[in-house]
Amino acid sequence: MKMKKCVLCCVVLVFTLSLLFPAISVAANKYVFAWIPKALNNPVFELGRSGALQKAKELTEQTEDTVEVLYVASVNSDAAEQVRVIEDVISKGVDGIGVSCNDPTALKDVIDKAIEAGIPVMTWDSDSPESKRFTYLGVSNYEGGKAAADLLIKAMGTSGEVAILTGVPGAFNLEERIRGFKDGIQDYPDIKVVTTVACDDDINKGVQVVEEVMQANPDLNGWFFVGLWPLFAERGSMPLWEAAAKAGTLKTIAFDTLPVELELLKDGYLSGLVGQKYWGWGYDTIQMLYDYIVNNKRYESWTDSGMDIVTIKNVDAMIEAWETQDFTKPLPPAF
Amino acid sequence: MPTPKTESDAETTTSPQPGIGSKLLNNQLTTIILILFLMIILLGSFTRTFLTANNIFNVLRAFSWIAIASFGQSMVIIGGGIDLSSGSTMAFAGIMTAMMLSYGLGVLVSILIGLGFGVFIGFINGILVSQAKLPPFIATLGMLSILRGFCYGLTSGWPIRDLPRGFLFLGQTDLAFYIWKVPLPALIMVFFVIISYIYLSKTKGGYHIYAVGGNEYAASLAGIDAKRVKYVIYSLSGLFAAVGGILMTSRLGVAAPTAAQGYELDIIAAAVIGGISLNGGEGNVWGALVGAAIMQILRNALVLVGFPAYWQSSAIGAVIISAVMIDQYRKRRI
User: How many domains does chain A have?
Assistant: First the structure.
């Protein structure tokens, strides 16, 4: 009887151990990466999220490891809230963090805190250069602005009156784009920036100020929309701008490559777009975190994510990418 | 554009407000109308574009939704409260209407649902203020945040586009009057200012709002149901904000979850510039109309004269303070 019990005990023990061990080995190869955008209220981050989930799925299928994405953020772009979110993620315990910083300085401490806790951190889209993050994946907004200037010169020629529409004055990325744009046109003294207007990232105000500028400067030759705000509005809401764009006397270059802009480009209202690779924010970040931890790959302080330059020549490829949600194929050349 | 204002002024002068110093009120309105005229004259002489029919109607359309929401806000402020949720209500009503439209519901039904949500939100604000006895500032601040969350949550942050033509008609149509093409939202605004004015100064319900805002305790002693008054004013504020939000959505053809962010401050500022006292019991919706006009003309002017974008918000702030100061100064002298 006693013997029987002992055997039973052994069997149970072996059984439990055999169950436990693979469980432990699976747990060792399961990676949870927190992917933290600036805010939940900006649709482009949704696209990055789908890229992150796609990469996690691919890695799980193609390697022996399981990769999971934890998607958390504050509702609004708020540095203090974002710090709290990261603190929560640290105490929860993840294997890596990819974050788009609302503020470079405000996020520095918490990023360093995560690294002290043994969690590697990288930044994407928006950096915190002073922190100990292992790399920053993003575009140079300055170069983006220069690319926009280049597009405008190609469309408009080397002389003309130009206006700039920005969002919230003082936003670092927007200011960098404007600086790049102004440097891009400075070799052409006949291109004159007649006014710079701001719309506080608000569609309604954007539509309003664009029309007001068109009224004050009926002979305007070019627009640089540093973001796409007024373009979200339906056609018919900016009659003066639309008429001038259709007549061909006015050329507009805008940042971002959202479907609504692609349609406008296709219909001849816009001449060129400069866009970030939103999908890549997620897709590439998860790959880089994985490579950093699993394959011990090391990166430069800045990893260029590249830009999409879209004109009438390659707009169809970009439209297709949006429709199929497959952004892995490179775009055909813009010129 | 100046003509309706003069008529309105005349109308106010001939129909004294019940229960409040009508002379004072009229003088207040005169001051800000003078400020408005001064601005128009200055701009007309300094720019060649300001006094074009195109620009005037553009400005009228641009402030129409702020003004309409401001009429509702005025009722709340006159009744001794404040509604910070009006910007969020505008966005939320726009989104609800757009969602209904994208589900394939008819234009009228969708708009009614959007308006219904506006009234409902206002009614909840009314309950929070009168039943739960929350300070209006806190109750509506909470509502501001709740609604904004709904806007983001329901849309996942994406703007709703591709709305049917029949809906865009509301915000994008210009009606021909003689040689002018007057935007429909501006006419809707005129309609709302007239009915708000009639309600506030010609009906018992309106009189009760002034009474509760002036002295709630005294009003209760006089047999006025203060709770009921609060339900009414917050519901109307919700309704008016919804009207504004739906018009704005229709004009832009897009319902964005980020729309109308911070508009509550413009809406409140319009009322206060218009001489509606934050202490309650005093003021008139015509003032809110002129206040909204002053703010939009200022914005328009800054762009037309090419004032640097980076300094514009300071200029707007300075004008708000000056307008109210001139008004206060005049009030003290009387």
Answer: 2
